[in-house]
Amino acid sequence: MVVLVTGGAGFVGSHVVEALAGAGHDVRVLDVRDGSDVRDPDVVRQAVDGVDHVCHQAGMVGLGTDFLDVADYVSHNDLGTGVLLRELARRRFAGRLVLASSMVVYGEGRYRCGVHGVTRPAPRRRGDLDAGRFEPPCPHCGAALAPEAIAEDAATDPRNVYAATKLHQEHLAFAFARETGVPVTALRYHNVYGPRMPRDTPYAGVAAIFAGALAARQAPRVFEDGGQLRDFVHVRDVARANLMALLAPQPVSGAFNVCSGVPRSVGDMARALRAAHGDGAPAIELTGGYRLGDVRHVFASATLAAERLGFVAAEDFAAGMRELAHEHRVNVAA
């Protein structure tokens, strides 16, 4: 079987490539790092010729620096996906398409008010954040909300540029599926961590930023109060979810959370990384700062992926944090 992996030289993509090759499949990689851009129709036309399945990992990730990144996100994520889908349609592609999506499409996660039940809070206001009021209140009565795991049937509500482009990727891919009959599986990655995370860039994930700081003997600077809840999932589990979607006996269409199923706070993750560095590691700094495009809590229900894909995360969190810390120490020493 021949599988095209776009973004196959990147963080998640490289692990998908390794997993596919390890399972005995032929892999074709298209990656801007190798000079092959998914936005280039001629390059994509050649890349899709003769492939059985496509795993679309290419894209620009992270919250970025400010709104001036908007055209770059739209170009890499939306235009790149559009070019790929057009060339697949032209080739009358009849395999499977697995799309790297993200939990950011949900915006804020699922919350419950003691009076009004399940509700969706409004975007947080700058005045509240400046005053250290990080928890979003019930939009109906202003009461405190309890966060809950979010399932795939929740309404999408992207709250930053990156999130908007990831949701648009899903919309484009599912429109392609309706037009062509090609089964599309959108994997909504939660906070992925592990070996080969991008480092020293504003687009890096928070785990890499903290690991890099600790390796340089600097304090991890945690936004807000560190209580933001997320689901941290190891990249090897993410790669395995991709293989399950590509290789299931029958195609499994739809959107699925790819997660550990265990919510942890950003502060918990920072403390786990600090513990991995041993005694003498710099103390965590709670800055009270914030990024307006961030949400407070979003963590996942793992039920649907387990039922439909058979995917259950297997990597140990503490061991994964030790692995990440070790990699960053080695890179700093080098």
Polypeptide structure, described:
Helix content is 37%, strand content 17%. It is α/β, with parallel strands linked by helices and 334 residues long. A six-stranded parallel sheet has the order 2-1-3-4-8-13, with helices on both faces. α3 (70-90) links the parallel β3 (53-56) and β4. The longest helix is centred in the first third of the chain and has 21 residues, at 70-90. The two termini are 39 Å apart. The model has no long low-confidence stretch (mean pLDDT 94).
Number of helices: 10
Instruction: State the share of residues found in helices, binned by percent.
Output: 25-40%
Most strands sheet? 6 strands, parallel
- Spell the H/E element sequence: EHEHEHEEEHEHEEHEEEHEEHEHH
Q: Taking Cα atoms only, what radius of gyration do you get, to the nearest Å?
A: 20 Å
Task: Tell me the structural class.
Answer: alpha/beta
Shape category: globular
Beta strands, count: 15
> Numbering strands along the chain, what is their spatial order in the largest sheet?
2-1-3-4-8-13
Poorly predicted spans:
none
For the residues shown, what is the average pLDDT?
94
Strand content: 15-25%
Alpha carbon gap, first and last residue: 39 Å
